[in-house]
Design brief:
Elements: H1 4-28, H2 33-44, H3 59-106, E1 112-115, H4 119-130, E2 135-139, E3 152-154, H5 160-165, E4 173-176, H6 181-194, E5 199-203, H7 208-216, E6 220-222, H8 224-237, H9 239-249, E7 257-262, H10 274-277, H11 279-282, E8 286-291, E9 297-299, E10 312-317, H12 319-329
Parallel strand pairs: 1-2, 1-4, 2-3, 4-5, 5-6
Antiparallel strand pairs: 7-10, 8-9, 8-10
Helix pairs in contact: 1-2, 1-3, 6-7, 8-9
Amino acid sequence: MKTTIGRLRIAIAMVVTIFVVGTIGYVVLGLALLDAMYMTITTITTVGYREITGPDVTVPEKIFTMILIVVGVSTVLYTFTLTIQSVVEGQLREFVGRRRMDKKISQMHDHVIVCGWGRVGKAVATDLHHSGREVVVVDVDENRLRGIALPTVAGDATEDSVLRAAGIERAFGLIAALDGDAENLFVTLSSRAARPDLFIVARARQDESVAKLQRAGADRVVNPQELGAARMASFVVQPNVAEFIDITMHERSMDFRMQELEISEHSSLAGVTLREANLRQRAGVLVLALRGDDGTFNTNPDPDTVLHARNVIIAVGTVDALEKLDEVST
């Protein structure tokens, strides 16, 4: 089935064809080229301003004009109707789509807001989506958001109303990935004021912006250029280590992941040692590190280390093993 735009193209082509045929017909009937064009236009548009065929209209002229009126007028009206329909449908589709998207965003909880749909924002949103996180993308350029499969909000991310439209009251975290450090600073300040408990990651281009973003309330500040450079260097210095980290953290084609798990107060792991938890046998994961309440990491922890509530386990294993770890920790 053809779309409205497809039918409109065909209708326009028919109008042009009728105009050409009508002009040729009147020329054959004895009119000059300009007069023939004039008669065709006034006939198919139903204007009928003035006939210039002369006082004695011949039978062929009458028959030809009647045929032109029936065919031309109906085609022009059909084209006009399709034009209005395409405009209305486009606006209606955009309105309905926007309402549907706003409703979806209003029902989202623990999602991540990505501010900025540039190269960094696009990569972050894609990775979060592949990780199973719900994402809302915010960008000031509405054209850049067209065609994105993720929920979007068009507007300035530094404005509180735009952040509210993205569901900041219910969000888990926010990524400030705008092009400029000043813009990311404003987004961080606005987000922290709206949600003191929101987890915020901000992008920094300049080294001197890192401290400012941290003071503004960012939990983490990332310089993509520095991270990229460090990653490139690691492939030269320690290629196997770098490849292992890529596989466990970023490679989607392999059934191998690194994951963190925070021990809850009611978890069966709280109050027992790593030896007693026996996560290697029960879940099939390898515990690489533990993070305590003070934020320090205990790498390669001793088996007699006691696990406490709010400790974070850094483990590596297959997807099934990590899912088993979640079950064991309940």
